[in-house]
Amino acid sequence: MLDRQAWLLLLVLAVLFLVLNAGAYKGYFQDDDLDTMGWAPFVGSPEFLEALVSPRFSRTNFRPAAHYYYHVMTTFFPLDFPKFIIPLQFIFLLNAWLLWMAGRKLDFGAMPIFIGVVFYMFHAALLDAYWKPMYVFDLLCTTFCLLSVLLWVHDRWILSFAAFWFAYKCKEPAIMLPLVLAGCEWFLGRRRWKQLFPFFLVSVSFGAQGLLFNPNKDNDYTFRFTAPALWKTISFYAGKLFFLRWAGLILVPLPFLVRDRRLWLGALAAILFLGPLLFLPGRLFAVYWCLPLTGVAIMLMALASRYQTAAAIFLLLWLPWNLIQLHRERTEVLRLASGNRAFVFELVRFARAAPNQRSFVYDGVPEGFHSWGVSGALTCIYRVGGLRVLYIDEPGARQLVETGAAVLLHWDPSARRLAIAAAR
After folding, report:
1. What's the pTM value of the predicted model, to 2 decimals?
2. In this predicted model, what pLDDT tens digit does every residue of 36-52 receive, in sequence order?
3. Residue 85 CA: distances (Å) to CA of 28, 351, 412
């Protein structure tokens, strides 16, 4: 168990984290949130359970262990944004605690663990994970991956396998977890290879299915196994680690320079968990560091265990720079959220006055919003399926408005206001 001082330190960090991120409750849903909220409440719990236990790759990108969060939250707290944020922030704090426990299991002292956990908890790249519900997939995937590793090193391999399964059913980068566990066996010296067989069997099965049956062709979700794609992704993620172009690559030679197996283990985890994302140049988001950054935090713990003063100085220099990035990210998130809120709130007001309306045409959306957000928001508000939602330039859309069969949703970007022309 953690000693009293460690618990107190964790409590202080948790309170500081919650205070610094109180602004998250002033945000609002993104288009991906609204799209998921439009269908998740209508899927029954048995269907979620069936998808959870199924060994088949989901062609519809259904991640039942994480999508169930939307099912529960939208059922009980529809469009109540602050309620959606509460579990996100506490799951993130749980991840920080699991990372702390991993550091203790690796025999790091209190100060190295503190440095690594602070680096992880307050890293600006992870802001979206606990400010935007749409990244609950990354958040929960990290939770179950950390839990799987901890259970594995505590000789609970069956429970570790269950956590691995849940992690994959949250998001696909968990497919690399068996290699991380193999790294634990190699670098920590126990060599329990037989117990790893079911982990690798599942990983290979889902990986092969994903490559063979991936329905995403020639879009942002398509893997690009090319040098230009790799150059683009490495440049992006290396720049987001310390918010300086290519600066993250400074970590690559460290395991060769510092003799510590734990440093190798952290580097392996960071590289493996980031690996699948390096071939998705169409999906570049800093928050995708959520899982790989746990490996970087362990690397920092290993360095701090040998060079504690230097690591402490690094943290003191990095924190102000990181807080600047946090401020920029928060400002941008809240700016975009204000437009989304104005758009959805006006739809809610209209739905109260016209609860039987079923056809809609829109001619603009808030910045960063997409068509699926419009249809998702309307389905979530009206709580029925089969709504007709068209963009103004789609065939037949103007005629529907002119004949009064559909209402026109007109978004004014300068006034950041939605005007709705009701059907005649």
Report:
1. 0.94
2. 999 999 999 999 999 99
3. 10, 25, 28
